[in-house]
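Sequence of TerC family protein (Mariniflexile litorale).
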Amino acid sequence: MIDFLLTSDAIMALLTLTFLEIILGIDNIVFISIAANKLPEHQQSKATTIGLLLAMVQRIILLFFVTFLIGLKEPFYTIELSWLHVAVSWQAIILFGGGLFLIYKSTSEIHEKVESPKHDEDELKGKKIKSLSQAIVQIILIDFIFSIDSILTAVGMTNGLHPNHNYNLVLMIIAVVISIFVMIGFANPIRRFINEHPSMQLLGLAFLILIGFMLITEAAHLSHTKLFGNEVGAIPKGYLYFAIAFSLFVEFLSFRIEKKKKKE
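Predicted 3D structure, token representation.
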């Protein structure tokens, strides 16, 4: 286990996944803060911390469930046509459905942030919260919605790293725990940073589209899909890591140039 976690692929996956989990968690932090701010001041910090800790537990439980489904590799149905061959398994269905969901969710989120960035916040502000328990229940429900794309992102980044799914599961859990504790400690500074640089969140959503496409191709590869006699291959994760690293490097240069202009 330790040997696997110290490999370059595992470390790169952990760093990338932790970064994406934090970026994807920004909306979660915003909504949790809105829900917590409706409580008396002495309960706001408590509600935020409890909400994020319960979010962590909820995501770990979902990780176990999704990983179990992905472990079901054996095909239960085969589609055999003159131009198409697919050996359908639960693993392929979960990955394919997850890829479609990530692409849909990311494009709709990007559209919503461009067209009406405050729509969801305004809707949540209109809901009444009278007690700490009511706030925590609402936080858990909000996090469940955001957990789905978070879990699918984790699966997309780690699937295939190690033949033993338990090793990949441990890596995903570590990334989720780190990201949640970072959000607990730096919720307000992270939120301010993203408000000042909204392109970072759009960049994270763009990465989700890449991960969604990768999940679809991986589902086709694992189900031995053949189109007109040509088998669909999996996209090497190194390409994804390079795309993310290059994009972040360009964004970092943009920050430096912007900062320099402000000083001048």
